[in-house]
Specification:
Blueprint (H helix, E strand, L loop, with lengths): L1 H18 L2 H5 L34 E5 L2 E4 L4 E6 L2 E6 L2 E6 L1 E5 L2 E5 L17 H17 L3 E2 L2
Parallel strand pairs: 7-8
Antiparallel strand pairs: 1-2, 2-3, 3-4, 4-5, 6-7
Length: 151
Amino acid sequence: MRGNVTDRIGEIWQTAESLLPPRLWARSGRWPKSAIGRHALVSRGVENRPPQKMEDMKSMFTWLNKQGVRNSNSFDVQSTGRFTFEYREGPLVVTIPVEPGNYGGGASVSIPADAFSHWDNSRMELSAQKQTQMRANFVEALKFQDIVVEP
């Protein structure tokens, strides 16, 4: 019985691959957002995409759910609404207001210059170096999700 299910799943993926244009499958070595069932198996702990090509990335990301990722360097980026993202480092949280857009033909967001100025539960200003690091982490996480942070 199990072999039949596995064979059927393989047939479904081959059919889906043959129906979509090759440029979508070749994009960054990842499956396209429009692929049928892209996130269907992720919540069950089964990866339904080919392995990511991360040689050029500093660290590895894993999907938390359809709207968030976790980095191996212990930070998370999660979309919490249409106009907000959360950047988390352990118990510390920064809520980032965003303006969604369509930059270069794909999904994009623009963020305020002072988005990483302080943690949500503190008014103490973060150092410029820490803010730069957090912004770079945020941009890297959104890049993994195929979202561009507008300049």
